[in-house]
Amino acid sequence: MKTLTEYWTFHTRKRREIIHITERVREVVRKSGIREGMVLVSAMHVTAGVYVNDNEPGIIADILDWLEQLAPARPDYRHHATGEDNADAHLKALLIHHQVVIPVTNGDLDLGPWQRIFYAEFDGQRPKRVLVKVMGE
């Protein structure tokens, strides 16, 4: 089995931001030379995530609104007693999850017709790392 690992750093301008990364992941798969296998895309921080969904502005806004309803930014989280102010970001990241695994078939991402890969930042404006690991033959 062959592998290729890359580490990316994102430094978002906003605290909360969704970044479409499908083509960037696809390029790593191509660079790997792996024809059959899988690619893992994993946010290496507890206040960020990676998910697969439609690249349509309405659903992206709906996802952000849904996350804010489930884990609203507010001052009364117990985590804030540690001096932090990002408890809602931790909770949002749990809802999105921190990683995805995508099949690689014939040297390309094997996504459904509307599936795209996104990096979700919930406590940005500082450097955050993402791991991309392609595995296969």
Descriptive report:
The chain is an alpha+beta fold. It has one domain (2-136): Jelly Rolls. The protein contains 3 helices and 8 strands. A 5-stranded antiparallel β-sheet has the order 1-8-3-5-6, with helices on one face. A hairpin with a 2-residue loop joins strand 5 (99-105) and strand 6 (108-109). It is elongated.
Summary?
This protein has 137 residues and is an alpha+beta fold. It has helices spanning 22-32, 57-70, 87-96; strands at 2-10, 17-20, 37-43, 48-53, 99-105, 108-109, 116-121, 128-136.
Range of helix content: 25-40%
Give the SSE order as H and E letters.
EEHEEHHEEEE
Terminal Cα span: 5 Å
* Structural class by SSE content: alpha+beta
**CATH superfamily (homologous) name:** YjbQ-like
Describe the SSE topology:
Blueprint: E1 2-10, E2 17-20, H1 22-32, E3 37-43, E4 48-53, H2 57-70, H3 87-96, E5 99-105, E6 108-109, E7 116-121, E8 128-136
Antiparallel strand pairs: 1-8, 2-7, 3-5, 3-8, 4-7, 5-6
Summary tags:
alpha+beta, five-stranded antiparallel beta sheet, elongated, 26% helix, Jelly Rolls, 137 residues
